[in-house]
């Protein structure tokens, strides 16, 4: 009877969905391993290398902080509170975006809604899937830090098991909040009052963050006081991370108290996390189905988020014709008369598809918001840039930060472009345009768009750091080469490892090819910034031969990483059978 009950539970709609998708994922993983053992080995080596290197860096950093008598424990504690607070915010945004995509922009969801399956069951499965997709990177990033923290604090063996349990509970709360926000965003996005309130709230949050995160300047008189008092003033703006009602506070307190041996207090914060997970998880699993069904109906029926604005409807009525007039995208592209008309049509199609996909430009806005926070806080570094060593260090760290943002753009948005053609690929493939020109056009569009972003970012950041024009031009040339290289890598690997079965860019990027693209991008950026730093004319200005060698190494590495995958991708699509 027990075996029969277990079998029947697996045949429930939710159990069947979990079992089928887990089996498909396992088969895809086995297929990738069998098709390319070399690539799988490289990925494994990189993962092991990242874990080892990050663990070593975290261990060295925490050991260095601990050497400060009376301050090490305070700094370590505040860093943990800040880290988990920022991770909670990032997890919330990640779950919001992925949940919106999975619930309202997914072919599987549309297929399941047409079947005799309860909407609550569909929401449960998509909630589990979105939480896993949004949280795996967080677990991957945080594990070396917690391992290094446990080693420096000399914690007992059971600390690591308890930490895994606490983190597993912690990731559920932003998943619940993100799914709830995604459903309500879909339900009320077309309402003018909601749109105005969202814009006002976003601007208010930016203004509050700009004033709140502004550091307090220290005078010479203040520096003569006790170091602990000065440090407390410097960290005053970070006290928001110790707000007792934040889930990150419960997690940080549980980890800290368990490492210190206060097991009862750590157990209390663990129970606080567990109670909130059970309460909000129960509400999500039992009460969100009807809201999801209503929101899905609203999303499928609405034509535009501006449709309820009177001025927008009046403008549509004035410009509505029975023909198909050229829009602003076509008008702008038609001015590029040196580009062939079929290529311009393809570029217009890609631009319009990107603009119509809310999740795509929504993630772009989030990324640019983070870049805005980075740029705003750069001006605080100028007060300490008096020593040539720090000038060079900060300038190359800024180049690395700009390149990493570029790698995020190319991996997230450029890599899945070829796969997003999906089953419509035969239309373009059989057209006079051809598959090769299709890939070249995507590379050109992605390179121009990302070059506009990176050049503006490097000029603005160098201006905020008060860099002279010769250094600004030097970094602009370097980031231009990196732009073409990373776009060539993303487009080439996207053509080499397409996934035409998925229409969700997040799932395409989360596959083997997207992971490999991110790995190679990271290794390329680290190697390039290291070569450029050692070949900097402001560090080794007298050693001309060393500079030339470093620059030639950077050029050769860029050519290998960018041109070689693109050439292989073009060769594959040329022999592609539709």
Key descriptive features of the protein:
disordered N terminus, 24 helices, globular, 578 residues, mainly alpha
Detailed description of the structure:
It is globular, with a radius of gyration of 26 Å. The protein is mainly α and 578 residues long. The chain is built from 24 helices and no strands.
Quick description:
The chain is mostly helical.
Shape annotation: globular
The amount of beta strand, in percent, is: under 5%
Distance between the termini: 51 Å
Helices, by number, come to 24
How many beta strands in the DSSP annotation? 0
Q: What fraction, in percent, of the residue positions are helical?
A: over 70%
Number of domains: 2
* Low-confidence parts: 3-10
Rg from Cα? 26 Å
Compute the average pLDDT. Answer: 77
List the helices and strands and how they pair.
Blueprint: H1 2-10, H2 13-35, H3 37-66, H4 72-104, H5 107-113, H6 119-153, H7 158-170, H8 172-188, H9 192-212, H10 220-223, H11 227-234, H12 247-259, H13 263-301, H14 310-319, H15 328-334, H16 341-356, H17 358-378, H18 388-414, H19 425-429, H20 434-464, H21 469-496, H22 505-509, H23 512-534, H24 544-574
Helix pairs in contact: 2-6, 3-4, 3-6, 4-6, 4-8, 4-12, 4-17, 6-7, 6-8, 6-13, 7-12, 8-13, 12-13, 15-16, 16-20, 18-20, 18-21, 18-23, 20-21, 20-24, 21-23, 21-24, 23-24
């Amino acid at each position: 009877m027990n075996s029969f009950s277990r079998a029947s539970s697996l045949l429930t709609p939710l159990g069947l969905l979990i079992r089928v998708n887990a089996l498909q994922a396992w088969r895809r993983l086995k297929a990738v391993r069998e098709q390319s053992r070399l690539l799988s080995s490289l990925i494994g080596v990189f993962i092991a290398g990242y874990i080892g290197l990050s663990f070593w860096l975290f261990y060295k950093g925490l050991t260095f902080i601990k050497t400060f008598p009376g301050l090490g424990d305070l700094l370590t504690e505040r860093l943990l509170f800040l880290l988990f607070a920022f991770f909670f915010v990032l997890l919330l945004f990640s779950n919001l975006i992925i949940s919106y995509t999975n619930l309202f922009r997914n072919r599987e969801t549309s297929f399941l809604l047409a079947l005799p399956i309860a909407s609550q069951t569909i929401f449960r499965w998509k909630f589990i899937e979105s939480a896993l997709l949004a949280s795996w990177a967080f677990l991957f990033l945080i594990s070396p830090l917690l391992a290094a923290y446990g080693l420096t604090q000399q914690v007992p063996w059971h600390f690591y098991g308890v930490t895994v349990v606490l983190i597993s509970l912690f990731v559920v709360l932003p998943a619940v909040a993100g799914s709830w926000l995604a459903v309500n965003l879909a339900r009320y996005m077309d309402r003018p009052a909601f749109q105005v309130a969202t814009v006002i709230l976003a601007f208010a949050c930016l203004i509050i963050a700009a004033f709140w995160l502004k550091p307090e300047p220290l005078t010479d008189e203040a520096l003569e006081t006790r170091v602990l008092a000065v440090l407390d003033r410097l960290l005053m703006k970070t006290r928001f991370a110790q707000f007792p009602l934040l889930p990150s506070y419960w997690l940080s307190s549980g980890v800290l108290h368990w490492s210190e041996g206060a097991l009862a207090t750590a157990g209390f914060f663990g129970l606080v996390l567990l109670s909130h997970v059970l309460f909000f998880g129960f509400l999500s699993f039992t009460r969100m189905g009807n809201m999801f069904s209503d929101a899905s109906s609203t999303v499928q029926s609405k034509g535009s988020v501006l449709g309820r604005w009177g001025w927008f409807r009046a403008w549509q009525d004035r410009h509505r014709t029975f023909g198909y007039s050229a829009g602003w995208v076509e008008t702008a592209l038609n001015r590029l008369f040196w580009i062939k008309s079929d290529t311009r049509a393809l570029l217009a199609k890609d631009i319009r598809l990107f603009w119509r996909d809310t999740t795509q430009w929504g993630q772009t806005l989030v990324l640019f918001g983070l870049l805005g926070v980075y740029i705003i806080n750069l001006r605080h570094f100028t007060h300490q840039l008096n020593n040539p060593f720090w000038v060079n260090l900060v300038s190359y760290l800024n180049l690395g930060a700009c390149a990493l943002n570029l790698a995020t753009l190319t991996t997230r948005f450029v890599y899945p472009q070829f796969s997003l053609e999906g089953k419509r690929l035969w239309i373009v493939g059989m057209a006079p345009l051809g598959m090769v020109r299709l890939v070249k056009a995507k590379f050109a569009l992605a390179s121009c768009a990302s070059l506009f972003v990176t050049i503006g970012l490097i000029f603005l950041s160098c201006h905020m750091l008060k860099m002279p024009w010769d250094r600004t031009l030097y970094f602009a040339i370097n980031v231009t080469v990196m732009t073409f290289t990373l776009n060539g890598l993303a487009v080439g690997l996207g053509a080499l490892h397409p996934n035409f079965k998925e229409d969700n860019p997040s799932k395409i990027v989360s596959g083997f090819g997207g992971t490999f693209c991110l790995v190679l991008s990271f290794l390329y950026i680290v190697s390039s910034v290291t070569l450029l730093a050692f070949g900097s004319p402001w560090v080794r200005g007298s050693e001309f031969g060393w500079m030339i060698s470093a620059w030639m190494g950077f050029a050769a590495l860029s050519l290998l990483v960018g041109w070689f995958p693109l050439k292989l991708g073009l060769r594959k699509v040329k022999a592609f059978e539709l």
